[in-house]
Amino acid sequence: MSLEGTPDLQRRVEALERENAALRERLAVEPEKPAAAGSEGTAAGGPHRRPWGWTLLATVLIVIGSLLAPVAVVAAWARVELTDTGRFVAAYAPLADNPDFQAYITDETVTVINQHVDIPKLTSDGIDGIVSLGTGPVATRALKSFQGPIAAGIESLVQSRVAAFVASDAFATVWTDALRITHAQLVATMENNPQSAVTLGSDGTVGIQLAPIIAAVKTALVNQGLTIANNIPAVNRTITVAQSSQIPTLQLAYNLAVVAGTWLPWVALAFLIAGVLVARRRSLALVWTAVALALVMVVILAAVAIGSVAFIASVSPSVLPSNVASVLFNVVVDGIRATAVSVLVLAVAVAVVAWLAGPFRVPRKLRGFFGSGAAQLRSAAARHGLSTGATGRWLYSQRVLLRVVIAAIGAVIVVFVRPLTPGLVIWTLVIAVVVVAILEVVQLPGTSSGDADDPTTATTAGV
Q1: pLDDT digits (tens, 9 = 90+) for 315-328
Q2: In sequence order, what are the residues at sequence separation of 6 or more whose Cβ sits closer than 8 angstroms to the Cβ of residue 35?
Q3: Each residue's pLDDT tens digit, 80-90
Q4: Which of 170, 197, 272, 324 satisfies CB 3.0 to 4.6 Å to 182 for a cystine?
């Protein structure tokens, strides 16, 4: 048989593939097209329209799920903070490297030392002891004149040594160990156990015990030759880092959050999914559900920003400097902020994907354009003797199942991998889209019973 007709046959195959892609796209969205003029549309799963009551029920379910979402985010954050020691330490350990926090701890530690060690009196007693050994009038006056500078020098030396220790890796280790031990006693903290490193007072004060820090500073000063530090006694001192009349109420809320944080996110998710499933137009419902969830996350982020300003304004500078209050607040709410941003990114991604996959005019044209491009790539590969053959036809026949599997894997990653970050969400979406695109290119439209739709087979038959 002559090969002269092969180019015409190939062009015909390419045209047929483009037509088939367009027809498949139309058939895929046909069930969701309106059944009659003025109709809102049909349910995604069948040709018959559901009563308007389903739309009302879907709206109620989605609204309830959206209202539960911010509570679920806070509850999940609190549960992790109260039960995951590694996450707790990872969140608060960096405070040891914060200059504002280091300066605050240094000032508080030096204040405690000066309250228990009277450096001017010790200096005066030391000089008086030297004078009592028999110094002359000139030497005595000289020693007396140096009494003040010597005391100031010792105080400055203590200040610098404490600051150096607080800025060292040794302090970071002490701080990290204290956090780890504290978290192990966190339940006791919520019950106001006096042996806990973090205390909650009945008057609404939140404090951090300085005893382990002062003990470590004393050891460091003595090891560096400042024997005067031996006079520092064991101090049971708690510094107040916050005070609010609402602390006891928050304490109760935290205890409830440990329980609610386990199941409330799933309840909120169940309401949202149920709202989409019962909707008359599931594609549209999924888009609006994702948009509502995104708006709720924006509200959470705005509330955190407003809460930061309110917290700093409510804390007296005599209790806690504003810069330190800002640092502590940001550390506390960082988990909430990160989760809200991640869920916001996820919601936007779901809204975009649902819109692109929905029966809307612009997405339909985009999908048709992509399908035509994939068909052209397959035809180009076929002209070079490349074809996925039976495997491609199987991939085409199972395309819906494979897309569901890809979506399910992405959902499992987002739901169960922690911590949830915007990067995790974005990369999961990107990889899923790439896999779907690859499947679209390598799949081969046709039936398993014959090779009539296989471009490679068709070309060979015409030779």
Answers
A1: 777 777 888 888 88
A2: 42, 47, 48, 49
A3: 777 777 777 88
A4: 197
